């Protein structure tokens, strides 16, 4: 899937990624490996109106997760998706990959330019900063057909997430 991975420095980052997940200790890691087979994917068009559809979809998929995890996931997905729609190219896909100790969010677009943090201004520049503050880890994967921005959120459900 990936041809390269960019780790993003600063708080909330530091996991080197390839195809799947950030390794963790013990049974949570094993449960995450097993749960990675549970994938929820949504294809969207280039219209900014798709953001409401994506937010509703995330709430529906994560309805059994704690409310704080759902609200953070909605915010992170909204930021990553709006960045893809504004700065990337079609095709666009949003994925949720629940695990026992974390939720991985991925947003694909067909654009070749890597995402980068910008200085906040009246025109924006706060999205990736917000993602960085909310996520346990985040970064981007370059693919021959575009890029994937990803973020991992810790869940409050140590017994295992539902798919």
Structure commentary:
By secondary structure, this protein is an alpha+beta fold. The protein has a domain of 110 residues: Heat Shock Protein 90. Helix content is 31%, strand content 25%. It contains four helices and six strands. Strands 1-5-6-4-3-2 form a six-stranded antiparallel sheet. A hairpin with a 2-residue loop joins strand 5 and strand 6. Helix 2 packs antiparallel against helix 3 and helix 3 runs antiparallel to helix 4. The two termini are 23 Å apart. The N terminus and C terminus are likely disordered.
Question: What would the keywords be for this entry?
Answer:
Anti-sigma-factor_SerPK, transferase, kinase, protein serine/threonine kinase activity, six-stranded antiparallel sheet, globular, 163 residues, HATPase_dom, alpha+beta, disordered C terminus, Heat Shock Protein 90
Query: So, the CATH homologous superfamily of the domain at 4-14 and 45-91 and 103-154?
Result: Histidine kinase-like ATPase, C-terminal domain
- Number of beta strands: 6
Rough shape? globular
N to C succession of SSEs? EHEHHEEHEE
Number of continuous helical runs: 4
Helix content: 25-40%
- Specify the biggest β-sheet: 6 strands, antiparallel
Strand content: 15-25%
Quaternary form: single chain
